[in-house]
Amino acid sequence: xxxxxxxxxxxxxxxxxxxxxxxxxxxxxxxxxxxxxxxxxxxxxxxxxxxxxxxxxxxxxxxxxxxxxxxxxxxxxxxxxxxxxxxxxxxxxxxxxxxxxxxxxxxxxxxxxxxxxxxxxxxxxxxxxxxxxxxxxxxxxxxxxxxxxxxxxxxxxxxxxxxxxxxxxxxxxxxxxxxxxxxxxxxxxxxxxxxxxxxxxxxxxxxxxxxxxxxxxxxxxxxxxxxxxxxxxxxxxxxxxxxxxxxxxxxxxxxxxxxxxxxxxxxxxxxxxxxxxxxxxxxxxxxxxxxxxxxxxxxxxxxxxxxxxxxxxxxxxxxxxxxxxxxxxxxxxxxxxxxxxxxxxxxxxxxxxxxxxxxxxxxxxxxxxxxxxxxxxxxxxxxxxxxxxxxxxxxxxxx
Length: 399
Known about the structure:
This protein is an alpha/beta fold. It has helices at 2-8, 18-31, 46-59, 76-90, 109-117, 133-136, 185-201, 235-246, 262-273, 289-296, 299-305, 338-343, 354-368, 376-379, 382-393; strands spanning 36-38, 40-45, 64-69, 94-100, 121-125, 144-148, 152-156, 174-175, 177-182, 220-227, 250-254, 258-259, 277-283, 308-312, 316-317, 321-324, 328-332, 336-337, 346-352, 371-373. It is built from 15 helices and 20 strands. The strands form four sheets. The chain has a nine-stranded mixed β-sheet, sandwiched between helices. A seven-stranded mixed β-sheet has the order 2-9-7-6-3-4-5, sandwiched between helices. A two-stranded parallel sheet has the order 8-15. The chain is globular, with a radius of gyration of 21 Å. The model is unreliable at 5-11 (pLDDT under 50).
């Protein structure tokens, strides 16, 4: 409530941008996403970079490690993480994990048993158990979170598995992005985890032990958006829609799965028609073909309006990134699709800092070097974009 009043009275430096202030107010009201000042944010490009930093941080953990993942595999990468978690738990660090019941269903029994024997607490988000699965199968926890000692947090699009380090020959190179965060913003990530843990266990862990007072405040203003079907509003969609309709110069979107609703198509089309430079980078090599073909049916209308659409060719594109006017950046687990807007439990970080956003844009621009620009003729190809696409689009509400 206090932050809502502060923003309304323009007592925060966001007032230099009407767009930023309005967005911050929207997120406060729709998802209680408080404004916090991060000390440091590190952009982690691809799995190798993420796991390099993550393993170092996990090994240094002193009090607690909380993980929440859609996909966690018992393979080479997963086993490395598991070994550290087992050892830290035996050393007295409290380790808690939330696995999604569908995405992490292939974890081996021995892998899980080793964690439990070491004292790691494990909870399953909507496990595939009859008859519960009949009601919950479609609702997945798509978040990818790690919070260490309440002072270091990870959030983004990279799950835990070999493919995310380009080690799976089926997929080859895997392009993705993640954030490593230090400072007060980590408390917001921790709050997302603790709420989910309470939902699953009814254990109230909201205390100084897991939400320590920050030792220092930084200058990187952020908001953490946690959205899902339990939200009274649709904060994920409202955030993206607001970003698009208030953009003044440039919209740069990178997403692997593009199945928007009509309002999002209208917003992108209108932005391009009023002169905003709109760039949309999508998968060129799909990991899910039905989704790929369904997304193609939305492209002709956008290209005709002036949206620059690219297909990434170097490997599998899995990054979920939005930058607006060089001022605002969004990185998280959220795709530009109906599932992320309404069905899945997601988490994204909104960053109001031009220096960090410039670094994010540089990462997006690097992707363009490996992307193929789609001409109007290309997106209107009958077979690929009409026949297959129309059939796939019939399933789009479920994808």
